[in-house]
Amino acid sequence: MRYICANCGYTYDPALGDPMNDIPPGTAFADLPDNWVCPLCYADKSNFDPLD
Amino acid sequence: MKPSVASLYQAVEIAQDIPPLLIGERSNTNGSKKFRDCLLAEDFDGCLRIGLDQEVQGAQILDLCSAYAGRDETADLTRLVKLYAESVKIPIMIDSTTPNCIEACLKLYPGRCIINSINMEDGGKTLDKVCRLAKKYGAAVVALTINVKGMAMTADEKVETARQIYEQAVGKHGLRPQDILFDPLTFTIGAGDQSLLDAAIQTLEGIRRIKQELPGVFTVLGLSNISFGLPPAARKILNSVFLHEAVEQGLDAAIIDPGKILPLAQISEEDRTFCFDLIYNRGQDKEKSPLMRFIDHFAERVEVDEADESQVKRPEEELHQKIVRGDKDGIEDVLAVLLDRYPPLEIVNQILVPAMRHVGELFGKGELLLPFVLQSAEAMKKSVAWLEPHMLKVDQEEGTKVLLATVQGDVHDIGKNLVDILLSNNGYKVFNIGIKVPAETIIAKARELKVDIIGLSGLLVKSAIVMQESLPQYREAGLTMPILLGGAALTSEFVATSCVPNYDAPVVYCADAFAGLKALKEYEAGTLKATVAAPKNGQPRMKPGVKDVSIDRNHPVPEPPFLGLRHVTDIDPAKLFPYVNEQALFRGRWGYRRTASTTAEEYVELTRTKVMPLYEGLKQRALAEGLLQPKAAYGYFRCYSEGDTVFVEAGDEVMAFDFPRQSSPPHLCIADYYRSRDEGGDVAAFFVVTIGDQIAVETKRLFEADAYHDYLMLHGFSVEVTDALAEYWHEVMRRELGIAAEKPADMTGYVTQGYQGSRYGFGYPACPDLDAHKMLFKLLEPEAIGVTLTETMEMVPEVSTSAIIAHHPQAKYFAV
C-alpha cells in the first residue's frame, strides 16, 4: 500500500522504495525504520496517511 | 410451544398471528449512518438509543451489527449485545458473519437469539462453524440464498440454494427446520437495471416455493433493498406494498425500519397500482417503463419525518451530543431547558467540559479530525457565552489561568491560537497576549494576571533558541509557574537538554495543542513534570538527500533576461490555484487526514462532498473579495562561488551569502551549484513573493469572531496559496532563464522537483539562517511590495516567502 505525506504530498510507493533514504524497492511502509523521514520535507512517519 | 426467540424479559413467536415479524434494521453500522457515527464516536448510549427508538416504533426483534473496517467487531458487538440485553425488552439478532464474534455474543446473551447470517458462498465451511454454534447455543439462523456461484437471482436458484443449506443445517448439523429463516434475497427494482426487471417476481416466487418445498422453515427478507435508488417518500410506499405482497406469498419476517412502513390501507388505490406495475413488471410495452411511470407519479412526494429522534433525547444528552458533533443550531434552546434545572456553572462543569474532553479523546484516537474538533469548540464557546450572563462573577474567574504568547521575533500564531481555542473551551482561563512578545512583557503579564502556567509558542528555529535563552531571565525574575513550550522547530530532546536546566519549575514540551491540554490536566492533578530526554531507543532521524556528489562544473550558465531587480504587482491570483498543493492543504494544513477508521473510498467521499466544496468556496470568495494580492520582488545577478560563499554583484556592491555545508556525507552546500570566478562565474536569481496583507486581516478577524473552523481553513488556504505563488513565480523565472523545457505534468511533478534546478527558501533546511534576509532585502527592496522584516529577520506579512534559485540541474533539496 502506498502512503502519502500529509505535510507535502510526497507519495511513498513500496514498489519504488526511497533512494534518497537508501530504502530498496519492495520495502513496505510498515517496515521503514522509525527514524525514516519524508525525503522531501523531512516529516516523520506519523505524518503519513494510507493512500490505497 | 410455538417456535420463538426470547430476551431476558420476553419471548416472541416467529410466526406472528398477523405477519410479518418486524425486525428493526437501524442498529447497523452498514444500514444507518447515525448508528455508525455513534459507534465511531464511541457513543454507546447513542447506539442503544437507536435500538430503544425502534422498539417504541414497533420492532419486535432488533438486528444488531457493528462490522466496520478498521474497528474490532467482536469488542464492539459484545459490548452492544450486553447493553441491549439489559436495556431493550425485545430479543436481538446477531448480525455478523464471523464465527468467533458470533460465539462471543451468544455466550453473553441471556435468551434465545437469531444469528444473521449463513450462506453457501464458500461451499459451506463457515456455515458448518456457525451451525455448530447455533446448535450449541440453541439459536435460530437466517440463511441467505448465496452459493459458490454467487447470489441466487431466479426463483429456481433460490430454492435450490435453500435446499442445499437445509441439507447441511438440518441433515448434517441437526438443526430443526423451524430454526432456519431463509432469506431469498431482495434486489432493487428502483435503479433501472435491465437484468433486475423481474427481480421482485423472482423473490416473491422464491418465498412461496421455499415455504412449500421445505416445510417447517421460516422466511425473512431485507426488505428495503427493493427500492434502493429511489427518493425516500417513494421508497416508503413501495416498501410497504412489496411487504404486503411478500406476506401474501408466505413471508414470516421482515428486516425493516419499523418507523417507515405504512399499513396498506393508508396507501391509495392509485399509488398501489404504480407499485404493482413496478413490482410485477407490468406494461413494459407502454411508452414509458413501469419504473419511469412510478418515478413520475411519486416525483412530488416529500417525506415528512414525523419521528424526529431528537425528541426522545434527554436535554443533558442532547447538549453533550451537540458539543461532540459541533452542532450550534438551537443550542440555546437546550441550554434554556437545562438552566431551569441546574446552576450554570454545573452545566459547564458537568456537561460541557466533559463533552469537550470526550472530543479531545476522540481526536487522540484518530476518530475525529481537527476541523470537527474546532466545530465542537465553537459550539462550546457559544454555550458558555450564552450561560455567562447567568453566572456569578466569581464563577467566571474560576479555573486554572494560562498565559499564551508567541515569542519575540516570531509572527506565527496559528499554533498558539489553536492552543487558546482548545484550552479556553475546556474550562481554562486563557490570556492570549499575541505575537512577537518580548520576555520582559511575558514576565510582567504573568505577574500581573497571576497565571498558573505560561505557554510559549514559535514556529522558527530561531524561536527555539529564543525560548532556550530567555528561560534564565524567567528564573531570575522569580517566576515559579511551569512553562509549556510548543513549536515546529522544537523536539523533546532539545527541550529536555537545552531548556529544562535553565528554569527551576517544570519546562514541558508539547507536540501539539492536545499535548498542551494534557499538560494542563496533569498540572491540576499535581503530576506535571519537566520533559525528560526520551531514551535513545533508535538512531537519529535519517537525513535524506542525493547521494551523487560530483557536481558537473561545465553546465552552461543561462543568460538572464535582465540584471538587477524588478517588482511585479499585477499577478492574476486565479493563475496560482493550479499550483496549490491540495494534498498538503487538505491533509496537512486543514487536518482532513485519513484516519484508521476510514476506508480509501470513504476518504474520497469526504474529499468530494466536504473538502473540495470548501476549497472551491474559498477560492471564489478570495477572488471576489480581493483577498489575494500576489506580488513579486525578484532579480538576476552576476555571481561566483568561493568555498561556502556565493558572492553576488549588485551594481558596485558585492554581497557575500554564506551558506552552511552538511556535516556528514555528501557534504553539500548551496554554493556548490554556482561556478567560481575561475570557472567563469554564474547567475544567481532571488525572489521575495507575497499574497498581501488582506487575507491576513480577514484571518485575524475570523479568529477574533470565534469562527474557529473557518479561521483554520482560511489560514491554511493562505499558507498554501503563498507556496503556490512561490511555485508559480519560480516557473516564471525558469522560463525567463530559458530552462523551463522540463515542465512537470501535475502537482506531484512539482512536489518532486521535476524541473531544472531548485529553489532554496531562507529559513528552510538547506539554509536555515534567516539573517541572509538582511542582504536579500537590500538586493530586492521588497518593501515596495509591502514586505518588511521583524527584528529576528522574519518577513511580514506572514504570507510571504523568499528563495535563492539555482539553475544547475543537479541542485535539489537537501538538509544541512
Provide an overview of this structure:
The complex is a heterodimer of chains A (52) and B (816). Chain A is an all-beta fold and 52 residues long. Helices cover 0% and strands 15% of the residues of chain A. Chain A contains no helices and 3 strands. In chain A, a hairpin with a 5-residue loop joins β1 (3-5) and β2. The radius of gyration of chain A is 10 Å and the shape is globular. Chain B has 816 residues and is α/β, with parallel strands linked by helices. In chain B, the strands form 6 sheets. In chain B, strands 3-4-5-6-7-10-11-12 form an 8-stranded parallel beta barrel, surrounded by 6 helices. In chain B, α14 (370-387) runs antiparallel to α24.
Could you give the topology of this structure?
The complex is a heterodimer of chains A (52) and B (816).
Chain A: E1 3-5, E2 11-12, E3 48-50
Antiparallel strand pairs in A: 1-2, 1-3
Chain B: E1 4-6, E2 11-13, E3 21-24, H1 33-40, H2 44-56, E4 61-64, H3 73-87, E5 92-95, H4 99-108, E6 114-118, H5 125-137, E7 140-144, E8 146-147, E9 150-151, H6 155-172, E10 180-183, H7 199-213, E11 218-222, H8 232-248, E12 253-256, H9 269-279, H10 290-297, H11 315-325, H12 331-339, H13 344-364, H14 370-387, H15 393-396, E13 401-406, H16 414-424, E14 429-432, H17 439-448, E15 453-457, H18 461-476, E16 483-486, H19 492-499, E17 507-509, H20 513-525, E18 564-568, H21 582-589, H22 600-624, E19 631-642, E20 645-650, E21 653-658, E22 682-690, H23 694-704, H24 708-737, H25 747-751, E23 758-760, H26 773-780, E24 788-789, E25 795-796, E26 800-806
